[in-house]
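Exercise 7. Predict the joint structure of the components listed below.
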Amino acid sequence: MVDGVFVVEHTADLAMEVEAESLPQLFDRAALGMLALIEQDDLEAKAEKRDRQPGATPQQREIELQAEDLPTLHVRWLREILYLHQVRHLAYRGAEFQVIDERRLRARLHLEPDAYAAVRELKGVTYHGLEVARSGGGWRARIIFDV
Amino acid sequence: MTDTSAEANGRESVTAAGLRVERLDDYRWIIPRQGKMRVEGLIYADRALMEQIRGDQSVQQVANVACLPGIVGRSIAMPDIHWGYGFAIGGVAAFDPEQGGVVSPGGVGYDINCGVRLLRSELTAEEVVPRLAALMNQIMRDVPAGVGAHYKGFELSPQEVRDVLVQGAGWAVAQGFGTAEDLEHIEGGGVLPGAEPDLVGERALERGRDQLGTVGSGNHFIEIGAVDEIYDPRVAEALGLSPGTVTVLIHSGSRGLGYQVCADHLDTMLQAAAKYGIELPDRQLACAPLDSPEAKSYLGAMYAAANYAFGNRQMMAHRVREAFARVFGRPWSELGLRLVYDVAHNIAKWEEHEVEGRIRRLCVHRKGATRAFPPGHPELSPAYRELGQPVLIPGDMARYSFVLIGTETGYREAFGSTCHGAGRAMSRHQAKKSVRGRNLREEFRARGLEVRAASFATVAEEIPEAYKDVAAVVDVVDRAGIARKVARLRPLGVLKG
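Solution:
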């Protein structure tokens, strides 16, 4: 799994908790964690080193999102990353966040044509049990996906 | 049961998710109104199932739904209830627009009109088993399955996607993928009137172009089976099911198009809930009053996605029929591959029901629950008006599935609804852990089951023991009288995503 990302037991669906030192790191780890849920067969295994596939040209894409609060912003962010993966077949590998606060996000995404067979289909990023908040000196998120 | 206690009213009760749940009879439990609940909750379960149900948050979710504006009757849960998001999976709730009733995408889910379709044949298990491997291979070649499964070379134009959204299964039949008779054997004729393709977003339309006729992944499947037990010979005969009859069960929904419609409209519904001052016990229960523009917009888009799902199952059934024809060297019509029925189990629909002595037009949400209308219901097609509506309940991938029929009790008590499946007992993670070191292919072969899968990682998460025993679920609805058992199907071959 990804650093700072933990799979939480849920009978019917999939849930993850994310811990980070900063808001950009929280969003980055959540996106990488979600990709791991889609791509990794064994969620307990350490994240595999992802060498770029020959011929796969990395892409960059600007993204700008707004929301009324931080949890909603977080759901919209993950939804965009999920859309890019499911429909455009572009896998999130990182981002530079130019602006990120509780209601707004602007970032340059680093994407790779998806070279790994997805093992799971996430139907949606849900609002159920959603938590995105400060925790100690850092940030914490809990997200449940419909599988 | 450790904390069972007798209450002042004499009813035995248990605690679940901090709520008191009272035992009404052998198969019914009541969540009395407490906190902000507007109506009481009703859970169909026996003692053993209630023990499992208490272990997760689903009882709380039944109570949450009971808090929504305009809910009438009871917030109902079927015996396969388990923890979902928003509604519990296995939840039924009806809302009256005249009492400020709402519609909620959380009561339908991402996979809009996920459902099940059953075909029967004139073939017997003895005839099919020797050619089962070839049949499963052919189905696997012809019907794309797996994560993001799509057709190469069968892509719809944007206009064709819109036509499917309006016409549902009828679109596929008009293109030659099925017969007019098929449409008589689908819930609502395979189309929901009132679909509004203009309210379906660009992304959803894009996702619909190459996924019509695909299985998808997760718990979706195509299963070749055979009737191995009959409980109601009269109804079974009318449905064309006799011992040994080979059947095809198809479980899938509206694919990426439906997921996108749900996601797009959830945000609108969250804003609407704030606008209309609706207090939400869970944000996934975002909703809007049925007479609001936001609700009308969601219903129009949701019906469009539901029609896509009817079209999807129609296309898959056609491909499966063709696969049978190829393997057995005879046209599928000669093999008697007739459609028995096709039911939705994730949907919200307008229906008429009697509540407190008055017939009302209600928006009935079924999230992981199946419509089960009784004999004589005017909405049933002539094919089943006298018999009642067939109900299709898939089990896990190795044990059995069931065919039931709707009853008057289910209509009166549960808005004409019943259960939808087995319900998970293990998380995907637990399931995967439990198969470590096992050879699943060998295990299935030893059980006489031909399994084909786009990914065996999915199969590991879908092993039979990850699910409750569907027989226990079906026995509860049968004994409670909200649907009646007709026949049991034993799987022979399964295609998983």
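Discussion. Chain A touches chain B through 35 residues (CB under 8 Å).
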